[in-house]
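re: ur question from yesterday

yeah so i grabbed the chain u mentioned. its 595 aa long if i counted rite. heres the sequnce exactly as i have it in my notes:
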Amino acid sequence: MLQNASIKQNTINLLISLVLAMYLIACSTDEGAKSVSSTPSETTVTETTTDESTEENTADHEEEDDYVWESSDEVSIVLSGDSITENSDNVTVSGTTATIKAAGTYTLSGTLDNGQILVDADGDGTVRLVLNGVSISNSTSSAIFVNDAEKAIVVLTENTVNTLTDAASYVYADATEDEPNAALFSKSNLTIYGGGTLQVTGNYNDGIASKDGLIIDSAIIDITAVDDGIRGKDYLIVREGIISISAGGDGLKSDNEDDTTLGYISVESGELAVIATGDAIQAQTDVIVSGGVFNLKAGGGSGYTASSTSAKGIKAGALVVVDAGEFTLNTADDAIHSNGTLTVNGGTFAISSGDDGIHADTAIAVNDGDIVISKSYEGVESAAITVNGGDISVVSTDDGINAAGGTDSSSQDGRPGQNTYTATGNYYLHIYGGSIYVNATGDGIDINGAIVMTAGTVIVNGPTSSANGALDYDSTFTMNGGFLVAAGSSGMLQAPSSSSGQNAVAVIFSSARSANTLFNLQTSSGSSIVTFAPAKSYQAVVISAPGLTSGTSYSVYTGGSSTGTAVHGLYENGTYTPGTRYATFTLSNRITSVR
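ran it thru and got these structure tokens back, copy pasting raw so excuse formatting
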């Protein structure tokens, strides 16, 4: 007969998840990230795929019949301390080592002291290891070593706890060998699945490692490793489960350097809690996330300096794509980093970083999501940044939003793990929707090129020092829609360009106003355009809003009070009670300066 009802139900759930995954992949390739022309004056938003490699990085070794088998075909292997009992010609026992020589389903139970389960199966077929409450330790090597198999599946029996512990120092038959090197090590494609728990201690190197692909589905896994927690060389796919990792190296890793369609990590759902000395999640090519809950800490967190190794939250060599998920990232290095492009289509992010909050060498696109960067050196950094939607909140000790090329602008320039990046073409910030809030000690928005804004809301609490500005761009700032208020110092004041389609006002005070002192701009009839309480002292405020009309008289007030509700210092609704009137003027130019 078939396995029990829970296994069958899990199989049904898996098939459903596979269908949904295929659907989501199809949707992501048809409705990928929005991209824009690099020409600063161009405001047309086009729909394109995020990257062709996301289509290529979908094949894996999973098949429908991986999780269904006849219980009558099971081979029992009983572990009893220093002895092993088996009932098949396909298993040989030598001391405390059981060698599985053929494809099939093998159920393991009991405790094995200083021993190993070795899979050395020639020919085709799947080797299933059903762990039914086992505890395996080894003082000279891996606890489970898949040396040869077409494919291996580790099944965790529901409501069981299974433990694997390897040696702190390995003894190899051949001194030139360096494999295995993990408590659970496979040279073949490996899947870990089931409703049980797997506790792994990697004393020598990694906790779990596959030299091919690795899939984790519906498992509870707890890993402590001196180096990497989980490594799938070709790919690492997490479809469901609860994973906790404490790693002296990287948390989750895929590192195939020879094939651009491999070396990727995909997380579809589940809960991941990672504490890593290195990167929490690191892929040679892509990191693709369609859901899940992530609690990632790297390099000791944002209060530490990553001096010798990369200590990022999520790092990819080619691209990062996030469709959904809940992320809590606390990192010494960049919280999210791509050597290529980075696309956020959704999700919630709570980021605290000792370096950049979000960084991509080539381009960043934010289409939706809620991104809160509470601590960073620079908040969002790339050569090209496009915001089509979502909410972005940044607190930074240097620039809040930075579009530049060259060396990765960092508080730790030149350290190992930092990247030098270059980009060709124009550097730009395009804002077509969403909201951006910046509280920066350096430049609020610093673009080594052009800014285009057609919609959305931008609120900037810029620097108090005149060596920086709330807005800093090298080319033009074409503002044809949306709402902008930027407060800060006056020494390097910039406002939107005169070529903009929407009017703007730059107010420069003779002396600085204290933090939280209300700034109000209103028409002669008393209708407020903006009421804003800057978070820091300020001497200049730049405003651009659809309601600013040429030929209309306006007044600027400071102080006073408002009955409205403040979001990031910007008051909505309510009534403003005037404080001190600073100036009255008539809007006569596209950009009007008021002193």
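noticed a couple things. The helical segments are 5-30, 52-56. also The first strand starts at residue 34 and ends at 36.
anyway ttyl
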